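[#protein-structures] MJ: dropping DUF4185 domain-containing protein here for a structure pass
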Amino acid sequence: MAGQGKGLPQGTRWRLGVGALAALVLVGVLLAVPDGTERQKGCSGARVTGWRADDPMTRELARYGDDNARFDDWTGGDGTRSVRLPDGRTLWLSADTFLDQVHGAGYGVRSRRPDPAWVRNSALVMSEDGRFERTLLGGAATRPTALFPGTATADGREVWRWPVQAVVEPRRPGSAEKVVRVLLWQREVGRAPWIFGVPRASEVATLSLPDLRLEGIERIHRPRQADVERRVLYGTSAVARGGWTYVFGADEGSVDGKASRAHVARVPRGRLDAPDTWQYWAGPADRADGGWQEDPARSEPILVGKTVQRGATGTYSVVRHQDSWLLLTMDAGAPDGRGVTDIVSYWACAPTGPWHGPGRVAKPPLPEGAQGVGAVPYNPQGHPEFGRGTKRGLLVSYDVNVLDSGGAIHRDVALYRPRFLRLTLAPAR
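AK: finished. structure tokens for DUF4185 domain-containing protein:
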């Protein structure tokens, strides 16, 4: 099967590269001053004061993955972003997805066959009452394919898409009709050090409502930098605020142990699929060439953290909490080596920063036996539609995978499935 190595799909290994493995390298960030349209006199900030495992959510996803009602649905994946739909359902997005049968369900350790069917991406539909119901794929039931289809280069190399964050927005500004816009990362097969794929483009797919039919995919931006490490892909988070959707991204510096840098763009609500409406943060607004600019090449990093040695990984998550912005990430560049195991937070009064932190969040628990095979947590993602602002706290997912032994994730399916936490939040000042 294309992209597999040591039993672990190339896409899965890349996720570790930009998630868990990125936490092992130095991921830098730069402090930025908010644009005048976003500046606030101040905000209360946000800090995490406690956490607990959300076992019911973890068990519900495991129940769905184990049920064997179909052999063309989700049994494991990563990426793990979500968006609440207008009718109360939730759409969950998954990157590299294993399908096929799960053996031993209900009898302790559950496994797959060593060479299960898998696709580059999928989506899961959760009912209004919180039950996972079906997997969205392309192709036919007898031959499923990725929901967001891949292509190939002129010389035949694979080009694939990974879904990242999605939002529900008007089909066009002012329209009563809603659609789902899904941000995609397009990557192509490359040579070392790009064993996890060369960054190719940021795209937006449109899904109709309520039937979630794929209508089309639009290219937003194809970075052209000769230095591949500085090519930015957008969509690790997307937050609607006022008349704008703020879309966060990052470059690829962590591929070779150098600094990855966070970026942010904004788009008018209802125009996420229109590349000519995107604006990119280009630094302090009091500069002639700063503020929000239409040319993506003008984008400047927003710094997360106080040094170039510490900051966010390429798959960080941003959510709103009351009057503040909260960023969650694995602790990249932590001086005592906690980066591969610990989630930290940063906060800001504006999407462009300045960002304050890091604040300790959690050492997320792993499945039984995970440490013995080198499993790691990565890609923490906030899901504010599940009870933020109530006593339930902020729901956060994190992915689990194995660094050195691809076969381990088939011998125990829990080693390549998301798990969930609930965070308790309070003002930072």
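MJ: nice. The chain has one domain: 4-426.
AK: one more thing. Helices lie at 10-18, 55-66, 408-411.
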